[in-house]
Records
---
Amino acid sequence: MTFFLLLTAVGYTQDGTDTTRTATGAIALRRARLPLTHCRVPGLNEDVLCGTYEVYENRASKTGRKIPLNIVVIPALSPTPAPDPLFVLVGGPGQAATDSVAGQAERFAAIRRTRDIVLVDQRGTGRSNRLGCDFKDASTAVQAWVAGNIPIEIIKECREQLQKRADLSLYTTPIAMDDLDEVRAWLGYEKINLYGGSYGTRPALVYLKQHPEHVRTVTLRGVYAMNPLYFARDTQQSLDRLEQSPAKIKMKDPWTGKTIEITITRDSFAGAIRRALYDSGTQRSIPWVVQRAMGGDFQPFENVARMTLDTLNSLSMGMGLSVNCVEGARTQVPFEDVEREAKGSLLGVALAKSLIGACGEWPRGKLPADYFEPVRSDVPVLILSGTIDPVTPPSWGDEVAKYLPNSLHLKMESIAHSPFPACAVNIMNEFVSTGSAKGLNTACIEKLRRPPFVIPRPSPEMNPEAYSPIERELIEAEQKWMDAVKRKDRAALSEILLDEFAQSDLKGWDDIQNKTEWIDTALSLANRIKDLSLKFEETKVHIFGDTAIVNSTFILKGEAGGGPVENRYLIIDVWNKRDGRWQVAARHLDRTQ
């Protein structure tokens, strides 16, 4: 992947094709029939085609307000492209398709050789009359999206603001897919290939139902069910029940720049675990996060908080409510059914209850009478599901496949909601190229493996039997060393460090500190940082007679400059036993955060 990125950065693909020159030629050819203009998008070092197409907000009456739909086409590289492009439908609900142009160009590079890739911001997202709701502070936003505690007053305020420029009942998926078909016709495509991921699978199926004559193939990655009845059940399939007590962490609010305190309740901790389950890579850190929480350290929650805020910045919450409140949180789902399905689960009822409560304040659109009927079609469909996906598990793919006789459902072992592995992308490339789900080379699916869990060794306090007496002695000596720093005890530090002591880091040989320099630096640090905390985690001890090597993750926390400080290091300490006591001979550290 790194090699590919280096090549594209200078204008070449892996096969040596000059993409800048070819793309320019492709644009010139496509411009003759596509009513779009040249433009540049972030992250892509070439021109693409951009434009807008207006549709009536009220498609039934064809009167009143119009919505400009934002469109980006990544043109095919071939001078004679296939007539059927790939339309990419993204998740949320509330994400904007055109926010990911560079990523889609990279992901579908093979398809792009012969086909245009089309991205249209669905009504209510991106630059298509975005329906965004603002949170006043980061703490409220995190609690709303992680713990499921959405303040009703925010929902009411958002509704009042958006109703001034939108009829919130007219942003449903069926209406949006009629928009998409108009765009298809305007761009001059007769048939299209659809790719939908997560919520994007729902628009893909709705488009297939409403406009089957214009669909060549459909690829569904993680079939999405919008019924809150199963939120807790689906999450529980990936992780057993976890109980935690409330805690607090401090972090900087990216909107105000101020230090804020976030309360971590059972619901927010459970929500954080659920978020971590979305990706196979982040899943592997869950045992480590839980172990730290058991020791009273909830700072890893800050990573979830930051990811939540990043997600909020990219989502149109108002559009998401307009979709979910009529297509997902349906009144025919009694709350007692939600409680039954959530009983004994990690997530509980908080998230579903919050959504149902918010939807009680949101305008509800109308759906076609047969909207909830299964989509039946003979169009070739490729369905891709991850076996450890907490939000779009394989069971939903199985349900959809029952009514699609020309479908193939591939279940990717050890894959969660993301990533979209190269193996699956290659299969999709072949599927779109051949236009058939039969005879695909799917052998690589069997080779997918779950990444190993990050399982920290228990601390001596939690499991003394896991360490020998000498190991425990050295671990205690490490902590006494840092406690002497916190006390600003120069005499104790001088006793702990050998006269030959030296510290190195990645800056090189010119930056090695001797004993005196290290002590001066450490005491200066202790004077500058308030509430200084110096802790070790994941410690391993290797003993060679009178010499020992201690490897640890070292965490420095406190406050300085009016805000929180947290630095993490990987350290290697060398201890030497002289006259019956251990002293430090050397330290090497690499900063990881």
---
Amino acid sequence: MKKGILASNTSGREDRARQSITRRRFLQTLGTGAGLLLTARCAPTATPTSAGSTSTKETSYNVYFGDLHVHTSRIHQADTFAEEFSREQIEAANSYARDVMYHDFVSVTNHGYLLEDWMWEVTKEVADEFTQDGVFTSFPAFEWTASHPCGRHCDPPRQDYPAWGHRCVHFRDTNASPLRRCNDPNYDTPMKLFGALPGPDFATTIPHHTSHPVHPFDWSTINPAYDRLVEIVQFRDSYETDIIQNGWASEQILGVVGGSDNHNGRPGKPRGITAILAPALTRDALFDALRDRRTYATSHGDIILHFFGDGAIQGSILTSRSSVTLGGEIDSKSETISLVELLIDGQVITSWQPNQATFRFEERQWLGEEQHYFYVRVTLKNGHQAWSSPIWVNNHFIPTAPSWPNLGQVLAFLAHDVRPRRLPAGETLHVTLFWQALGDMDRDYSAFIHVVGDDDRIWAQQDAMLQHGDYPTSSWNIGQTVKGEYELQLAQGTPPGEYTVKAGVYYWETGERLPVWDESGQRLPGDTMVLDHIRITD
């Protein structure tokens, strides 16, 4: 075990950090909300036109606790569920979260296929009634329960219903919150669900119990625009191992949350709590934090966990670093901290046994140019645990909002990955692009990827169908996300220096490019997106 920095042994830097902490309700009771107001330097998620930027901005946040996954009934049949459902049930779940657990937020996530339209309206009305800025937030939400048993609720029943997996769908507000049922043929696949949601500024989806033997999750359906988080702990157990193996190891950028998934309307029982790091207790502030992965998960809401990489908060993506300074600060109310583990790529690299209620650490890791992810796992003496969202380092996979850049009103550019970012002339550059269909396409479009110098001379390029021709765009469904992988051979004799990687889309028969607009409505020069910058070495 390495020796960490305990509360009684702090540097001047840590003393200043401690002075920036203000306790709120954390000392009042277990599971209470926002305890620590902390100022951090956070790296904002870059857009494709500014990818690779390492600029930071000051932000302050509180820690807010709540349950994002709770049901009000154990019934799974629509007719009997309708007989039991009442406004009082929904009110009781909200009241339990606010007045018994002293939580800051809750999402009542009854199964969508059980909800009739009037039930959904009641759920939203109660959420609005309980939401009071600075006091408590209730999100309109439902569970999209797409596994084999959902086929029994289709009309007619479907024995072949695929095991897509379960997702809780959370909305920013009740004005843009459509109910989408997994047994409705219009929304019975993940692609159809995503295509029918109002956009990731207004909706976010969270997969859960990803390796459940009866209700498994299909990891190939991950949509980087909507699936920003994954539930790592609930009443059944922790799914950390599965998330490592099938999520993070596959380079998915997913923060973590906890949810009880109980069916008795008692949020937070018996385990599964989300901590949201947000500047204010409002729907907008909390939803923005969820979308940006500013979260951690606990088996019980009695652990404060701050985790930073080079001053950036957990959930951040850091680019272009040969080393990173990782730091954390942990407070526990219910029990002493028995174990703190720092993990890289799912493997423990450092651990401490504080045996105190407060613990801090700081450690520098040398990385080279390889990409890695780091996170922290905390275990208390009573067995309760907490998991930070990861910090990704040297990862240039940049998820963006699904409508910007917008290409011709039919395509959205979601994310990209360019690697390596340093290579000699003559070597191969690997580029991965994620696209989403915004509308029907009757043409088969191609992508172009160029590596250009300061004088716009092209030193490497590849033109190919958006998924290399095996799945042309005319076959895409609205809302569907498709990954394209490309390889560009750098020309021999390419001079050392900085180069820009650009991309766009065109119709191969005419060469006409799809127009590209940014979020402000400005058309990009040459209908070309700047993806990243690379360096050609000697």
---
Amino acid sequence: MKADWLKSNYINISLATTLALLLVTGGLTMLNRNSLEENIAIRKQVEAAKHEFTYHVDQTMRHMDVGLRGYAIVHDRRYLYRSPEVLRADHSKNNLRLDSLLSLQQYADPAGRAALQDLRKFMDDYLTYFTEMVNALDKGDSTTFKTLFLLDKGASHGAVFSVAKGFLFQFEDMLDAEALANYKAAMNRSLYLQIILIIIGLPCIILVYYRLRSERANQIALLQKLEVTNRQYLFDSGEPTEVKDAESVVEHSVTNLKYAAEFLSKISEGNYSLSWKGMNDKTRSLNTNNLAGKIVALQGDLLRFKQEEEKRSWTNEGLALFAEVLRTKNSSITELGDSLLKQIITYLKANQGGFYVVNDEDEAMPFIEMISCYAYERKKFLTKRLQIGEGLVGQAVLEAETTIMKTLPEGYLSITSGLGGAEPHFLIIVPVKSENKVYGILEIASFRVMEEHEIKFLERISQSIASAIASATTNLKTQRLLEETQLQTEKLRAQEEEMRQNMEELQAIQEQMERDKHLKS
């Protein structure tokens, strides 16, 4: 009778036993959890206090030292990494965080507090010292900087730091040891609890196992939901959803996560040419808002940023190159034109071009003349003279705007490669102007269509060329005026000499007449 009752009520007995066990377990678990959380919090506070004290003080000193040396070497304030103001603000924030932690830990050691205050005073003094050296570098006062630098006020940092660290770490280690002891006690309680759970709960687990078999259908539904979630948030391959077992579903999710991590790692290394496996025109719309879609979008953004950075670098290198040409090849406008045109065509990978200047010596009849021509890696000795407004070049002088043509009139280019084949089909005409005055024209032809950054680059260097031409023209006019003045001076000197000789002759004649008159009388 009793055996039959047990057999018919074994589930209820198991549930009651499990419930009682759960209540006991819950009480012990809450006790252990509170103890563990308290001890973990104390240990975290200890780690945080040590970190705030050691890492941030060390980081502040390192930033000041390395940044100052970098600034002193390359004279670029960006190498400071952080300005004195930012470092001082960070130092103040670190002090506040450390004070908050020490207050929470009830740190009241007078000697330790005094040592910490000495360290902070040292750091404040060193920040002031650092600021003085930065100000000296800002003003270019290397003498003051060298004098301050040789004082080496950071030499005593180690001693002050060690004293404060000794007091503070002794206190923190004591707290850590107490927390560790409490933690071990809690772990022992947990061990005893686990033994009890094994002894009492194992039979209940065996009974529950049979009940879990009936939950297989629920598990399949859950796996189906997991697979759908994987496609929704990770990657959707577009293939039919099929759930075979839990392992395959989980493996599919893990595989997607690993692939995403590897893909991000390769992108971080600068490899932007990757293609996401399974991502194509058909599946792209399925992965717009999930992790795969976002990563591919990020890849595209990074690729565009890299391309823009390469364009900026290309432009800056070109500007530096042509600045050197303008500086060294300025003995004459013709020499300047030859050097500039050759460099421009080579740098832009174009085919041919011409450099025209506006000749306005006769203000009533100004004209345009070609002073340099370069085509197919050779200087061409061509001459061309155009009126203002004549042809595309003359029109560009009037309009003072860049002209771009992607289809050239037949026979427009008179220079060919000599080997036959196609002729350039892209032409850009850039006015060489400064302060709305056109000094010349750059005419460049190419097989390929130039990109926007190349066109802007041409327009930028044209301004520098215009300034160089304006300067050269002014110097030439000044030289001509000087030559004319010298010529007039020499002419006046000759006339003066001629008058002097005439006066001497007249005086001699007069003296002779006086002598003749005296002899007659």
